[in-house]
Amino acid sequence: MAFNYTVANVTSFSNITDNYNYTNSHTSNDFQYMGVALGGWLLLEPYITPSLFLEFNATSKNVSDIPDDEYHYCEYLGQDEAIKRLSNHWDTFYNESDFEAIKNYGFNMVRIPIGYWAFDMLPEDPYVLGAQEYLDKAIDWAHKYDLKVWIDLHGAPGSQNGFDNSGLFLANEPGWQDKQEYVNLTLLVLQQIYIKYGSQEFSKEYGDTILGIEVLNEPLGPKLDMSKLKSFYNQSYLDARAYQDTNNTIVFHDAFQSAGYWDNFLDSRGKLSGRLQNYNIMIDHHHYEVFSSGQLGVSIAQRITNIKNYSSGLGDESSHPSVVGEWSAALTDCTPWLNSVHYGSRWEGTYPFTNNPIEDKSIGNCANINDWSKWTDQHKRDTRKFIEIQLDQYESNTKGWIFWCYKTETTIEWDFKRLVEFDLFPQPFSNRTYIKNGTDTAPDKSGASQVGMSMVVVAGVMVALIL
User: Fold this and answer.
1) In terms of domains, do 131 and 224 share one?
2) What is the mean pLDDT of residues 192-202?
């Protein structure tokens, strides 16, 4: 599909009306999120579905033969073989029965990541079309089982963060702002999303199933020009209100900025004020405690304190509702390929994480992280506590939470279904064993953290976030 370089942006509120053909029954202010993300389905992430990637070195056994991301997955296979394999994956990894189960577990919404290439591409892109059809199926299934949906633009041209979860791994160096055509194509894709999923016709059929649209997942703010990112956010919001026939929530990721950073952005005091009384904006925060060496190896008591401090800061945000739109049960970064196909872990101090500020440059051994039979009782207890404190605090201080993710092929720490199976994730969500009103009712006397392996104490302070 050829890239249309003309982007018909709206330049002011003059073309926007408060009178929508369809008004959602929920806004960002009155919906309490208990959601789950469908990671690894419509946008590949190797650690979620390693079987798709292990086929590349089945014969050679050379790790170097395994592609880093969906971009190179498609490039290596070519169009015909890529569409064959991906179609099979889209058909089998999620289906209607998953949506029924998600509802029965107690969730009220799903966040569905998708790449820009499901809608339009750059001329040189190796990606294949087809994922949009499955997004449509997902919306239909969600509607059937009374689940709300966030459409999450998870991958942008040139990569907004350099992570493999954008579709193009660039060693955590974003390339999205390198060319204006990348930003233009992102806006064009968002316009297509707005026109299709925010239309009067669509709303008549599906009501307000589309609770929100996230304009861009995890732009890496510390390595981007934030003034340009704000301009993009402004434009994407103006387009949303001009092109849609409904007033669903427009979601902005915090770009890894501190709590409160977005308080004066597009609110009653913002520079685009004066036209709409209710912008219906949500700020999406993601929180993990495994992507810097200083976060690892600490006691569960410290983890609980970390979560309380973090969520308290979110609770102090004054202008827009917020949600913790990604979090997990992970106490380590041991899951194979979590940091990328060709990267090791901070936990073991392996490439490229060879300068951890900890004794012997390692915390422990990762070998048994996905072997439930090798988990210690304390590791199980700590994991349940870590889940419970996040449920407790995110419910108390924000509009709720969205767990990452519903299922994987092999992991435990990142797989909701396995966490429930192993009695680590409360069912129902309110069934808390350890955490009551933000307090650990059964603290470990030693205060130590043991994650199924030998431990050493972290000697340094937390280093810069590396995702």
Assistant:
1) yes
2) 96
